[in-house]
Amino acid sequence: MELRNKTIAVTGPTGMVGPPLCKSLAADNRVIALARFSDPDARADLEAGGVECVAVDFAAADFSAVPRDVDVVVNLAVVKTGDWKTDLAVCSEAAGHLMSHFRDAEAFLHCSSGAVYKPNGGRPFAEDSPHGDHHAHMMPTYSIAKIAGESVARFGALEFGLPTVIARLNVPYGDAAGWPLFHLLMMRAGMDIEVHPDGARYNLIHDADIAADVPVLLDQASVPATTLNWASPGLVSVAEWCDYMAEIDGCGPPKIVESDTAIPSTVMDTGRIQALRPDRLVGWRDGIRRLVENHPA
Ligand SMILES: NC(=O)c1ccc[n+]([C@@H]2O[C@H](COP(=O)([O-])OP(=O)(O)OC[C@H]3O[C@@H](n4cnc5c(N)ncnc54)[C@H](OP(=O)(O)O)[C@@H]3O)[C@@H](O)[C@H]2O)c1
Fold it and tell me: Could you give the dihedral angle defined by the CA atoms of residues 98, 102, 103 and 109, in that order, rounded to the nearest 10 degrees?
């Protein structure tokens, strides 16, 4: 799908993944961002990038201020308060409200997560691998709310005849943000970095590849919904990316500590997304170097 001169609604625009994506989409499209905008600076940053912002609280489920006439929806919104009612409302039920509201759109991209998979000791997760509470120790509501969100999106695709793609993202990062940035700051503070004993390996996916994947994923939107892993090939462990960041930054060797309560590996089978978009823009070493250089000590 060519994303040019479209009207695109993006939820979760102020989070980690949303800002670079919204600004990249806004270069050629009208982008309407939906969030509470609890951080006014985040809103100002989006508006400076040409993004229109409409304040809405998904937990309250009042979408009356939101325009209906959009071509495409990208649903990134998520919350991890640990309160089941709130987290299920925002991560799951809101997907249903959005699909109802935007039922006439051409395509709906529902962002899910590799956290929907049952930990399996670090073997690749294919799209039909079993579900489980992957993030149980760190974020008790997250995996279950994301699994529930997918079910709502599958129902919405059928109920509203809305072409839908469910994309299980893992692990996003970019020049400005991401899980490795937390590790960089922890290393600089001399803190331990807990990793799961299963090898703690993940597929990092850079902002630039996330933006480039979006039109390709939207092309896969269908009724019933299509479900795809959304990840770059090339596996890397937390220990490897921390070693590399320490080498660039000079902040000393990482203090890696194994813990059963750390987030288990999320090794994604990238076969299907790779077939759709074989050429990736940013390899993990380049991406990590950019992240470190963008955050001088
Ligand atoms: N970050 C990761 O490592 C990762 C990994 C795999 C998958 N994902 C998926 O990628 C997507 C984006 O994640 P992220 O890390 O960018 O999220 P994030 O940083 O936690 O941001 C969450 C976004 O949701 C909005 N939001 C939260 N509560 C809301 C409410 N009640 N009403 C309306 N909007 C609300 C927030 O804006 P306000 O607070 O202003 O409302 C914010 O824009 C999610 O679907 C997530 O599951 C992320």
Answer: -70
